[in-house]
Design brief:
Length: 202
């Protein structure tokens, strides 16, 4: 029987298969988003921590004082800057800066599909396996907390919720998860659904 790790590995794009300009989607229930201008390149790390009873997804909750998306659950990551060699380098750099996860604990696995946010970012989700033994040091200027959720929870379709909000006069539907009092929605939930869909396709 295939292990959880092997199922993840088979589901991913290779690290060289970066999304092209026409390969970004929103992975929810609305179809492609209307373009309002050039996408701003960004990247996130999707860290899968190797635990005894299966992998766990490492997530962060953004600091409440931030201007953009305060208090929301997200993956560590952010926009590319001029020092980054590409989205993979940006995802690793941002993760180290935001939560103090060293690269020596991270084994890159592959990529999910590119994700275009409603705010105009073209995000490359970089999946990695994380070996235990690390100590996290969240940067309080950006991160309120870091926590783990079993990967199996996100792979169970019964955990998925469909919610909606009004934006620009349009009802927008999106996936959401509720786990241990935390609300996981928007781009983060969309990327997790994309992972489940890719794993289901094998």
């Amino acid at each position: 029987m295939a292990t959880q790790r092997s199922l993840v590995e088979r589901a991913l794009r290779t690290l060289d298969d970066l999304p092209r300009g026409d390969e970004f989607g929103d992975h929810d229930l609305n179809g492609s988003l209307p373009r309002t201008g050039p996408r701003r390149p960004a990247a996130v790390l999707v860290p899968l921590v190797e635990r005894r009873d299966g992998h766990a997804v490492l997530l962060t909750r953004r600091a409440d004082h931030l201007h953009d998306h305060p208090g929301q659950v997200s993956f560590p990551g952010g926009r590319l800057d001029h020092t980054d060699r590409g989205p993979i380098d940006a995802a690793l750099r941002e993760t180290a800066e935001e939560i103090g996860l060293g690269r020596e604990y991270v084994e890159l696995a592959g990529l999910l599909d590119g994700y275009e946010t409603v705010t105009g970012y073209g995000v490359t989700p970089v999946v990695a396996f994380v070996r235990p033994g690390f100590t996290l040091t969240p940067d309080p200027s950006e991160v309120a907390e870091a926590f783990e959720v079993p990967l199996a929870f996100f792979l169970d379709e019964a955990s998925h919720r469909i919610h909606h909000r009004m934006r620009d006069g349009r009802r927008r539907y999106y996936y959401a998860f509720e786990y241990a009092g935390r609300y996981i929605w928007g781009a983060t939930a969309g990327m997790l659904v994309n992972l489940r869909q890719r794993m289901a396709r094998g």
